[in-house]
Amino acid sequence: MRSSDKLFYYLLKTLAWGVVGLLAAMVLVVLWMSWEALGHFGLRFFVDASWDSWREEFGALAFIYGTLVTSFIAVLLAVPVSLAVALYLNELAPPWIARPLGFFVEMLAAIPSIVYGLWGLFVLAPFLRDHVQPLLATYLGFLPFFQGPQMGVGLLGAGVILAIMIIPTIASISREVFKSVPESLREAALGLGATRWEMLRIAVLRVALSGVMGAVVLGLGRALGETMAVTMLIGNRPQIVWSLFESGQTMASILANQYAEADSSLHLSALTAVGLALFVVSLVINSLARWIIWRMQRVV
Amino acid sequence: MELIAVKNLSAWFGEFQALKNISLVAERHEVVALIGPSGCGKSTFVRCLNRLHEEVPGGHLQGEVWLDGQNIYAPGVDPVNVRRGVGMVFQKPNPFPGMSIFENVSVGLRLAGISKRAVLAEKVEQALRQAVLWDEVKDVLKRPGTSLSGGQQQRLCIARALAVEPPVILMDEPTSALDPISTAKIEELIQELKERVTVVIVTHNMQQAARISDRTAFFLLGELVEYGKTDQVFTQPQDERTERYITGRFG
């Protein structure tokens, strides 16, 4: 009995530490493989936007820019929609509507990335090109973000598809968070004469704020690393431009595009270094958000 | 005219009838205690007095509740307006997390559209004084409400309810989650509140009902078995079931 318990304990312990070890091994391999490029270009690699495989001039800045811009658009668009979905399903909709609707929203997360990419290419991009971008250019064209050629594919298109992809993540986690808000707080607000909206504001949203931040971070994490759909919609041109109509390239999409055809070892190493940068950016943004949540929870 | 007049009130949760044809009146500046075993409908009853019962899924009712001369269930009456005129204190202290002590007390005033800082500050101080909490928190008004002790939190919730100066305060077992000292403070406070408001308090504790109330209502299985002056209910109950309950033979 005792020895079988011990066996079980060591088995679980080994598997748990094995996962940590795997992570460490992956980081080490990525570091080792990117060493050539990092040694060659130094830290300049991360602040240089040129990417020329003929002249073997490599810098990751354009991809970092593309990743941050598309993820920012995604979060900006997805957060209000997700919160509206979560609030409606949890607080307003009757159960016979909330259950099937909630199921469909979560099913959005089950659609394969490549299908999003195809839909984005054939439906979303033409729609953006014909209807949304002309409107943006007409009314907000004085801003540098909405100028230039209207092609549908580009930073905006990639951002919109990412937004759709992270809605189920943010919405379902927000729903969990809202569910955890005690009923007595809702009643306290209603008892004070709050309208339904005021009740949601003071007893639900305000209380759940740090949890919602957590949901947004997880959505952001998904947006940062998302590859296939973005690769199909971003236009694949490494450049740093103000206009969201323009093509771009993200860290994930350059890897998907060029890994198979990289022939020089410096090119391959540079690509791995981009992977390393993606890892670091994800880590920094996640840590930053966790710090915000931690600070907020300490205040509460 | 009586402040609260309930006429033939019945309430349901879906199919289950929680209150059966209750009629009851309460005067101004009275403390009315509602006693009875768990599940007898006393909590449901107070929730009918500020239209909170209908917020529970499946909750519906029949009958009339007159508050200050208005039938709050008359067609066209907005439940939000009803609730602004009735304070409520719950079983567990429930200050809003993420709000300071000051914000917790002023939230009802803000909902009522008052936003002038000076007015808010004055009313918050007044409410906290009435809830006998001012001296303990006057220097830490910016601290979160949840940082206070349980008893202080409950007095904060009472201050929150008092701030909008309602004529009625409903309390649903307000001391059941508190230690004896905090309970004693709240009981003392309820006696003082009588000068300004009518208090309807649900309690599990018969000694508490006897100590603090002017009238006592005994509920059993959704019925109002007996209602009268507290000393009379406790010394000469008219109904045998009341007598059995207050002498501890069931419940």
A few lines on this structure:
The complex is a heterodimer of chains A (300) and B (251). By secondary structure, chain A is mostly helical. Helices cover 75% and strands 1% of the residues of chain A.
- Give the strand line-up of the largest sheet of chain B: 6-7-8-3-9-10
Number of strands of chain A: 2
What string gives the helices and strands of chain A in order? Answer: HEEHHHHHHHHH
For the termini of chain B, the CA-CA separation is: 35 Å
Structure notes:
The complex is a heterodimer of chains A (300) and B (251). Chain A is mainly α. Chain A has a single domain, classed as Orthogonal Bundle (MetI-like fold). Chain A contains ten helices and two strands, in the order αββααααααααα. The mean pLDDT of chain A is 90. Chain B has a domain of 136 residues: P-loop containing nucleotide triphosphate hydrolases (Rossmann fold), CATH 3.40.50.300. Helices cover 36% and strands 25% of the residues of chain B. Chain B contains ten helices and ten strands. The longest helix of chain B is centred in the middle third of the chain and has 14 residues. At the A-B interface, helix 6 and helix 7 of A face helix 2, strand 6, helix 3 and helix 6 of B.
Offer a few descriptive terms.
heterodimer, A: 300 residues, mainly alpha, MetI-like fold, 10 helices, 1% strand, B: 251 residues, Rossmann fold, four-stranded antiparallel sheet, 36% helix, globular
